[in-house]
Amino acid sequence: MPIIKVENLVKRFGSITAVNNISFNVEEGAIFGFLGPNGAGKTTTISILCTLLGPTSGNARVNGYDCEKQSSSVRKSIGIVFQDTTLDKDLTAEENLLFHAYLYNVEKAERRKRVDDVLKLVDLFSRKDDLVKKFSGGMKRRLEVARGLIHRPKVLFLDEPTLGLDPQSRSNLWEFITALPGKYGVTIFMTTHYMDEAEVCDNIAIIDNGNIIAMNSPEELKKVIGGDVIYLKTRDNAKAKDVIKSALDIDASIRDGELFISTVKGDTCIPELIRMLGDSVLSVRLQRPTLNDVFLKLTGKAIRDEEGPDTDTIKAEVRAYRRRHD
Ligand SMILES: Nc1ncnc2c1ncn2[C@@H]1O[C@H](COP(=O)(O)OP(=O)(O)OP(=O)(O)O)[C@@H](O)[C@H]1O
Ligand SMILES: [Mg+2]
User: Fold this and answer.
1) Which residues have their alpha-adjacent CB atom under 5 A from ion ligand 2?
2) Structural domains for the chain
3) Is the beta carbon of 54 within 6 A of some atom in ligand 1?
């Protein structure tokens, strides 16, 4: 039996349909990813699965329990790392975890050992007595994952776990998140809008405007592209697009000043393109397809994929601005 079972789930907020009749299953021990742009409905779906929101219609079950009718059993089965940090910054790392263990009724004799175990797991044991406000963004995220695991949940929900982290911290965080199913048998349900992060998943649902538009393993999804991707820059991309269409019957699309061409045989296609377009070619590169290409192909638009600025930095800037102008 799947550990998460979602059937025809709908969530409306007034006239906004945040989740539009989605269905999917997640197998126990898997890493399942929800990939989609801002406002796609990722957090709304997680909130329903975590019993924080009720659905407008449809049904969701976690660990065999109904998210609406058996919410307390669902809550005992899950750990959550929210999109926005929820640590108490004025407590130490250890105090944050002990507090959570207490809330989740972990037996007193067991609490300290569990806290030590998860601190070691996320490599923060040596920093356990430091106040959380002294932690970096990556350390806070790791501590939140540790907290989500203390009561040994069957499913760990991670909503944009690496948001605002630098690439190095992101990759470290993923290294231990992906090891969790093997170590604990925990199932991971994660959301992200970073394409490269979604590649660690066993299965991915691509969500856009509240709809699941594709669902499969990363490898299978990439087959949607049907081979390689060629990025071609020419002196006149619109004209080159027409030439490619009439000579090779390939529909190229134009993105960020480049032609995007998907083809089965990238290596033989490139010489042909250069022969046809001659001097007009400014640059050409061949890539194996990424999930970004899949998203582009399915929706006709690129998913936001750039680094977001650190919200703490923005807040500090706003405070400094206010001080100067008050
Ligand atoms: N409490 C709410 N009241 C009204 N509208 C809401 C509420 N929560 C979410 N929405 C709307 O539902 C849609 C989906 O939002 P959601 O937070 O699920 O997106 P998301 O995929 O998590 O996006 P992001 O990548 O920005 O976190 C958005 O249009 C949002 O404005
Ligand atoms: Mg969200």
Assistant:
1) 42-43, 83
2) 4-217 (3.40.50.300), 226-288 (3.30.70.120)
3) no
Question: E-assigned strands of 105-225?
Answer: 155-159, 187-192, 203-208, 211-216
CA distances from 255 to 146, 194, 290 (A): 41, 19, 15
The residue whose CA is least distant from atom 12 of ligand 1 is 18
Smallest Cα–Cα separation from 31: which of 163, 182, 229? 182
CB count in 10 Å sphere of residue 167:
11
Which protein residue has the closest C-alpha to ligand 1 atom 5? 13
pLDDT digits 0-9 by tens, 15-55: 999 999 999 999 999 999 999 888 999 999 999 999 999 99
Question: Does the reported pTM lie above 0.85?
Answer: no
Rg (CA), the chain: 23
